[in-house]
Amino acid sequence: MQGGMQQDFAGFFQPPAGVLRHAPGGQGGASLSSHVAVEGIGELLLQRSWKARHYRLTLRKDGMPVVTIPLRGNEREALRFAGQHAEWLGRARERQLRKPRVAAVWILGTEVLWRGEMHPVRLASEGHAAEPGQPARPSVCLAADVFRVPSLEGDLRATLEAHFARRAKIELPGRTWELAAQTQMDVKQVTVRNQRSRWGSCSSGGVISLNWRLIQTPDFVRDYIIYHELSHLREMNHSSRFWDQVERLCPGWRAAERWLKLNSGLLGL
After folding, report:
1. pLDDT by residue (tens digit) across 167-209?
2. For 28-45, b where at least 16 C-beta lie within 10 A, e where not — what string?
């Protein structure tokens, strides 16, 4: 990445800003990470961060609650902090359970999110030869898109996601350059990455990075993330001025955010 500043569009389950924050406590001897059992909460991961300025409670996608301890914090205060916000954690767990999730194993008939809609993995009508004179290789399709696979046996997920990522590396930069030209934004470079906790990022040097999974989302969601990162070229923060910029470029951004919050599990995030 170029430039000294970077803004991320994160996809973590966490409370609204300012809700679960607490001034750091006294000195403590907590390890870098440790698991503890807390009455009314269950297993909890305590994780020290040398960069954190406040205690923070988050819920990982695997259901594990995590309390981040700042440099000057301690385990006792972290446990008290978690107990104070047990109700929020319970609601977050309920929301997580209600979220649709991507299937762990993809076989023929599995419903997969592709270009904004759920489609079953179907056998394509004809195989595609890998090379002239070689036997035809099997292919599957999602809607009208056909993907070659090495075999129809076993889990197809890794193969199909590799196809998705390759297409994303062509389509997402192209769309970004198109929207950058329309909005007269000075983009220097566009990259597509396998990001696990964010949809995109933008550096102060004009480098935009996008999550390849955006190719699976509806067009209005994909465009919102691009507009979001383009807006950081004007405002490297999430101030009211930044959101005013997003509103001008993408008036439907709130619907896109709601879609992401509800459906991120279908993208494996």
Report:
1. 999 999 999 999 999 999 999 999 999 988 789 999 999 999 9
2. bebeeeeeeeeeebeebe
Query: Considering the entire predicted model, what is its pTM?
Result: 0.71
For the chain, which domains are there? Answer: 12-98 (no CATH), 111-267 (3.30.2010.10)
